[in-house]
Amino acid sequence: MQVVVPFAAETPKTRLEGVLTRSERLRFARAMLADVLAAIDAAGHEPTVVSTSPLSFDGELESVPSSVSVEIDDRALTDAVDARLPDRGGDPIAVVMADLALATPAALESLFATDADVAIAPGRGGGTNALVVRTPEFRVDYHGTSYLDHCEIARKAGVSLEEVDSFRLGTDVDEPDDLVEVLIHGPGRAPDCLRTFGFALECDGGRVGAERLENPAKEP
Amino acid sequence: MQVVVPFAAETPKTRLEGVLTRSERLRFARAMLADVLAAIDAAGHEPTVVSTSPLSFDGELESVPSSVSVEIDDRALTDAVDARLPDRGGDPIAVVMADLALATPAALESLFATDADVAIAPGRGGGTNALVVRTPEFRVDYHGTSYLDHCEIARKAGVSLEEVDSFRLGTDVDEPDDLVEVLIHGPGRAPDCLRTFGFALECDGGRVGAERLENPAKEP
Predict the structure, then answer these.
(1) Which residues are in coiled coils (chains A, B) (predicted)?
(2) Between chains, do A165 and B201 touch, taking CB under 8 Å as contact?
(3) Number of domains in chain A
(4) In this structure, what CATH number is given to the domain that contains residue B47?
(5) Distance separating alpha carbons of residues B84 and B77, to the nearest angstrom
(6) Parallel, antiparallel, or unpaired: how do β-strands A69-72 and A47-51 relate?
(7) A131 within some domain
(8) In terms of DSSP H, where are the helices of A65-145?
C-alpha cells in the first residue's frame, strides 16, 4: 500500500507559536515527521512524503528509512491528497498526517489491516488523522470537521466506511496542550526534541501538562 | 469479569462549571454514566457503580440495564478502587471511568479481551481511563500522572502490562474542550443531553469546538 504523508515544510505548526520559536517549530515538526516515517517503515510500508517544498535530509531527518521518497506539491492539502487517491482498479492509498508523534507500527497496522472502502482514524476536534482509501468513488475534504465530512462523502458515494479506534492515531500534535501527550507516549525523536527545548511534565491538580522549565533565548 | 464504575455523585464534573450550571453538570454526568453502563452491559458484563452517595434511577438513569448494581463508598477514588482489586486467586476486575461518553461495546471488548496482568487504556493528560487488573500484586494510584504511575507500579511488581490503544476509551470528558468529542462521536444519551442544553458544533478555522447557541437562564 502506498502511504502518503503530507508535510507543510514552510509553515510548520503555527498553532504552537505561543510556546516555540519558528526554528524550534521547524525542528519539532521534522522530528515528528521522522517518527511517523520510521513507524510506517517498521509496519512494512514505503512512505511518500508529499512536501510543499524540498526537504533536506539532515538534522532530525538524517536517519529516516531508505524506503522514504519525496514528492513536491505546493497545492493545498485537499488538492494534493485528492490527486493521489486511487483510480479505478488502482492500489489503495493511505494518508497519514505528519504530526502523529504517538504513532507506532502496531497502531498503523490496525489502520492498514482494515478492509472497508474507506477507513478513518479520527483525531481530536473532528479531524481526519489517518485514512485508507480503496475505492475511486471517494474524495477528501480536509477543511472543517473533516471526519464528519468524510463520513458524509462516503455515505453519499455508497461506499463502506470503517472507524479506526486509536488513541495513538487520534492524537495529532497541533496545540500546546498536545505536547504533554508527546512527552508521555511518544516513542521516537519528538519527545527528545521537546526535552532538548526544556519541556517537562508538570502536574497542577487536574490533567498533567507540559511545562517549559528552561526558556532559551527568543529569536529576533 | 466484574466491572467497577466509580461515580462522584455529589461533585459532578467541576471542571465544566464555566460552561454548565451545577444541575446541568449533574444531568450530564448521569447521562454519561448511563451510556457507559449500557456499553458495558452490551459488551456482556455486569457493571457495579461505586457511588459516593445513593443514586436515584430516574431521569437520565431511568433505563439503565437491569444488570447494574450499586455500592456506596465515600472514600477517595484510589481507596475505593484498591479495596475492590482482586485477592490471590480472585476474579479479574475492570475499572471504567464514568465519563467515557464515547465508549462503545467494541472499544470495551478490546479492553476486556486483553490477557496481561494489568491492561490500561490511557486518557489525555496521563490519566488512566480504563483498567483491567488480573493480579493481586497491583495497586492503584489515581493521583497525578496515573498512567505513568500505574506503569511504574506494574514494573516494580514484576507483572505484565498492556496498553489498550483506543481513542474512544482515551477520551474522558472533563473540560469544555472535551464536549466537542461527545457531539461528534458520542453513541448514547450524552450528546442528546448537550444538544438539549443548546450546544452545537462550531468551526473557527482550527479544530472544531462545541459552542453554546442558546444559554438557558442561570441558576440562582
Answers:
(1) none
(2) no
(3) 1
(4) 3.90.550.10
(5) 11
(6) parallel
(7) yes
(8) 77-82, 105-112
Helix ranges, chain B (H): 22-42, 77-82, 105-112, 146-157, 167-170, 179-185, 189-196
- The parent domain of residue A46 ranges over 2-174
What are phi and psi for residue A212, nearest 5 degrees? -90, 110
Closest chain A residue by Cα to residue B103: A165
**Does A126 contact B207 at a Cβ distance shorter than 8 Å?**
yes
**What is the number of residues in chain B?**
220
Interface predicted TM-score (ipTM) of this complex, two decimals: 0.93
Q: Is the backbone of residue B147 left (phi > 0), alpha (psi -120 to 50) or beta?
A: alpha
B32 domain residue, yes or no:
yes
Considering only the C-alpha atoms of chain A, give the largest distance between any 2 of them, rounded to a whole number of Å.
55
Helical residues (DSSP H) of chain A, grouped into ranges: 22-42, 77-82, 105-112, 146-157, 167-170, 179-185, 189-196
Q: How do residues B128-182 score in pLDDT, each as one tens digit?
A: 999 999 999 999 999 888 999 999 999 999 999 999 999 999 999 999 999 999 9
Taken as a whole, chain A contains a residue count of 220
Q: Find chain B residues with C-beta within 8 A of A185's C-beta.
A: 122
In a domain, B154, yes or no: yes
Helix (H) or strand (E) holding B210: strand B208-212
Specify the 3-state DSSP secondary structure of A92.
Answer: coil
Kindly report the average pLDDT of chain A as a whole number.
93
Q: With both helix axes pointing from N to C terminus, report the angle between A105-112 and A22-42 in degrees, rounded to the nearest 10.
A: 60
On whether residue A212 sits in a domain, the answer given is no
Q: Are A20 and A8 in contact (CB under 8 A)?
A: no
Cross-chain Cβ contact B167/A122 below 8 Å: yes
Please identify which residue in the block is written with the cell numbers 470537521.
Answer: A145
